[in-house]
Design brief:
The structure is a single chain. By secondary structure, the chain is α/β, with parallel strands linked by helices. It is built from seven helices and seven strands; from the N terminus they run βαβαβααβαβαββα. It has a seven-stranded mixed sheet, with helices on both faces. The longest helix is centred in the last third of the chain and has 31 residues, at 171-201. The chain is globular and about 50 Å long.
Length: 202
């Protein structure tokens, strides 16, 4: 069966990308291959991780291209060149417009660091999500992998995992626990699930 060609979109540190790379190495993503890492920032450490793993990478800067439209056009062009089947947003901190998301129905997934529908949507990204969870005083949080549509964090849920909030947690401590106990586990699993379904349909 043909492997699903995966592009991972990143903006920063790339620990979720690393989890995907490590899972692929361990043979836990047998239905897919990470063919490309795409960053919207030239300084993202995730690019180093791609390089170390020998994965092709690309940087597309909205600042340089001047508009969201030009940015998305360039991304679409690169994805076509690389024959990408599935996009995984792994810490990608830029909202994509409907004209982009419509091109990839159920072919683009995202990891979000909360149990959707809590603490999600516009403004809820990175550490802000955990700040909001602690402010609300929830005792359980977690992570969600979902399909991406035009509504930020609004697409169909694929996988979730809960994580306990502990006494004395700071946003940073909670973020790390959510990554270790949830994100790095469910992102590779959900990626394999979707890649498998796609390769079976292909
Ligand atoms: C992760 O916690 C990810 O879930 C979150 O940003 C972090 C990126 O870390 N994503 C969002 O908030 C998206 N709305 P990483 O670069 O180390 O994977």
């Amino acid at each position: 069966m043909k492997k699903t060609r995966i592009a991972v979109f990143v903006s920063g540190g790339g620990t979720n990308l690393q989890a995907l790379i490590d899972a692929e190495k361990r043979g836990e993503i047998p239905s897919g291959e990470i063919a490309l890492v795409l960053s919207n920032s030239p300084s993202a450490y995730a690019l180093e991780r791609a390089k170390t793993a020998g994965i092709k990478s690309a940087v597309v800067s909205k600042k340089e291209l001047g508009s969201q439209e030009a940015f998305e056009e360039k991304v679409v062009e690169i994805l076509a060149e690389e024959k990408i089947d599935l996009i995984v947003l792994a810490g990608f901190m830029s909202i994509l417009t409907k004209s982009f998301t419509d091109r990839f129905p159920e072919r683009m997934i995202n990891i979000h660091p909360s149990l959707i529908p809590s603490f999600c949507g516009k403004g809820y990204w990175g550490l802000h999500v955990h700040e909001a969870a602690l402010e609300k005083g929830v005792k359980v949080t977690g992570a969600t992998v979902h399909f991406v549509n035009e509504i930020p964090d609004g697409g169909k849920i694929i996988m979730q995992k809960a994580v306990d909030v502990q006494e004395g947690d700071t946003p940073e401590i909670l973020q790390r626990r959510v990554m270790e106990e949830a994100e790095w586990i469910i992102l590779p699993k959900a990626t394999e699930k979707v890649a498998k379904e796609m390769s079976e349909k292909a």
